[in-house]
Specification:
Length: about 230
Amino acid sequence: MKKRSIEKAFRQSLAIFPGYMVLGIGFGVLMISKGFSIVHALLMSVFIYAGSMQYAGVDLLSEAASILSVIMMTIMVNIRHLFYGIAMIGRYKDLKRHKLYDIFALTDETFSIACSADTEDLDPDTYYFYLSLFDHIYWISGSLIGAFLGDILPFDFTGIEFSMTALFIVIVLNQWESSHDHLIVILSFVISILCLFGFGPKDFLLPSMIGIVAMLMAVRKKEGGKDV
């Protein structure tokens, strides 16, 4: 049963492999372009392992952002994981050996596979652990490859910092296409632009996030508590 669980986890993780390698390489190159080392890229991918938040973290670290800004940015970017965790309570509640790691390594892509996996004929402890581990290894490998390439090859890094912006643009466009109600996205853009002009490019992030959270709470209250 354990061998079968590992084999299934590996087969299903292969769907994640290409995306994690590409995004991981982009992250590694970005780290080197900002003056960080291969070791920094490795440590962030091992201990933070937060995808889009790692991209955001590069700029936050390079600009010496305040702790409050880092906390608010992390909450805003990763708040969706709260709902992932709630959805996985039933599947993870009886795990024993690797439960803490499984919780830590529950990324968007791992969740998309784990939440619908049929573990009736498997060892859940083994299956969830190796699914998370394989995905984590793909991300770490991509980050290291990108960092090594950025360190030894004569790249022109001009514009590489736009990779994080491009990632968020793709996320917003996907949400725009999948939803018929675009009010939230439009209001978020308006709030961000107003804060940009009001506070300047260096200080607009925190007030814009506070404004967006307040707007979401107001819209949700108006909609009678329904998800927005």
